[in-house]
Design brief:
heterodimer, A: mainly alpha, three-stranded mixed sheet, 6% strand, B: mainly alpha, Histone Acetyltransferase, Chain A, Skp1_comp_POZ (chain A), SKP1 (chain A)
């Protein structure tokens, strides 16, 4: 199967890797267009699926997370390492891509990591954490450009 | 001459009007630029927060991993965060419902496992016998115990364990026979042993109580009647505390506590959306 990202980059995916994508693994189509996912994010999602190529049963993360636990206590080392190397904004985009593809374990991992980061912080600290400098969607980028053009005129 | 002057005056007035009009247009244009800039600043401020880029359902999935306190605290971040939380409360209630169902299922499993285990009737009988012996201890036995000046090591050990059972803050390593005498000086401690709640024996108490196994029944009975009675009582209490039935009972009690908490949270959230 082929995945095409928002910026028109094609990724060839093995059927073995596709096993993690519960929403599309049983579809007949050979091309999936992810119009709201950039290649960088899609690459990370595929990397996660490849990481779990031989894992048939990934344990579910307990909800809610116990206060004394950090991400290394609740998931495997490779998962914890994978998620801690990502930026907050990337994780949010990964959640959206994983939701589209139906990779529930990746959704849980990402959500749990953000929850751990949010936990115990005051509102100001969380606000700071949720700050982002880059607009996510094309629509927002276009709105930005329109505004700039309008001002230049 | 006058005519020429009049023409010059008219031209100047006209120029002045045009200049004023131009200036006015410039002001209007300036105003519109300022408005556009303000809009851009406002937009960029809004887009800088990830909360505005993500659908509430996605954030709800994140919040599900938080305990109820952090979940509700999230509302304080912004108006949008508050809306997200309130919008997603029904999902949280459903999630709590699911947790309660799972916990109830766990209780059922433990209850079945508990009934499958051998009956603890013999332990209860032993406990009742030990209690009877405690009741039968007469004042002379207790006075003798209290007045012992140079007690054997075994007696000191047994009494220290009794003190540990009665007071969870009692530090056995730091105590001497004199300290124990203060506790056994008041005969009410025997009544406290009668009403001892085995469920309240914590892990550190349990670890120390286990040292009773270093003493044999014969050794204890050789010292005095009181020492032997206390020894038997401690041994039965230890057996009950370590029994599988008791462990299951404790697990069930803990789960019931969790269910109570979950129900409390559920009621609180329901009140919030009503």
């Amino acid at each position: 199967m082929k995945f095409i990202s928002q910026d028109d980059i094609t990724f060839e995916i093995d059927n073995e890797v596709l096993r993690q994508c519960t929403k599309i693994c049983n579809t007949d189509s050979s091309i999936v267009k992810l119009t709201s996912t950039k290649s960088k994010i899609l690459q990370k999602v595929i990397q996660y699926c490849e990481m779990h190529l031989n894992d048939f049963d990934i344990p579910e993360i307990q909800k809610p997370i116990k206060y004394q636990h950090n991400i290394f206590d609740i998931v495997s080392f490779k998962d914890a390492q994978f998620i801690t190397n990502l930026e907050f904004e990337e994780i949010i985009q990964i959640i959206q891509a994983a939701k589209f593809l139906g990779i529930n374990t990746l959704i849980d991992l990402s959500c749990a990591y953000i929850a751990i980061k949010i936990r115990g912080k005051n509102s100001q600290q969380v606000k700071e954490m949720l700050k982002s400098n880059k607009p996510i969607t094309d629509e927002q980028e276009q709105m930005d450009r329109d505004m700039e053009i309008k001002v230049k005129k | 001459m006058i005519q020429k002057l009049q023409e010059d005056l008219n031209r100047l007035t006209k120029n002045n009007k045009e200049q004023q009009q131009g200036l006015q247009n410039l002001y209007l244009r300036f105003g519109s630029i300022i408005n556009d800039q303000l809009q851009i600043i406002k937009y960029s401020q809004v887009s800088q927060n990830l909360l505005h880029k993500v659908r509430p359902e996605v954030f709800n999935q994140i919040l599900i991993f938080l305990d109820i306190k952090s979940y509700l605290r999230f509302r304080l971040i912004s108006k949008r965060a508050n809306q997200t939380v309130i919008q997603m409360i029904p999902f949280r209630i459903n999630h709590i419902n699911q947790i309660i169902l799972n916990l109830n299922h766990q209780i059922q499993v433990y209850t079945i496992q508990n009934t499958e285990q051998t009956n603890c009737q013999s332990l209860i009988e032993e406990y009742n016998n030990a209690l009877d012996k405690l009741y039968k201890l007469n004042k002379e036995d207790l006075v003798e115990l209290k007045r012992t000046r140079n007690p054997p090591t075994i007696l000191v050990k047994v009494i220290i364990i009794i003190c540990v059972l009665l007071d969870h803050s009692f530090k056995p390593e730091q105590q001497s026979w004199e300290e124990c005498q203060k506790i056994i000086g008041n005969f009410n401690y025997v009544n406290s042993l009668h009403s001892l709640d085995i469920g309240k024996i914590n892990e550190s108490q349990l670890t120390y109580i286990k040292t009773i196994r270093q003493i044999s029944e014969v050794q204890a009975s050789k010292i005095s009647n009181a020492c032997s009675t206390f020894y038997q009582f401690i041994l039965v209490v230890l057996q009950i505390r370590e029994s599988k039935q008791y462990i299951f009972k404790r697990k069930i009690e803990l789960i019931e506590l969790l269910i109570k908490q979950a129900q409390k949270h559920q009621t609180f959230l329901q009140k919030m959306i009503e």
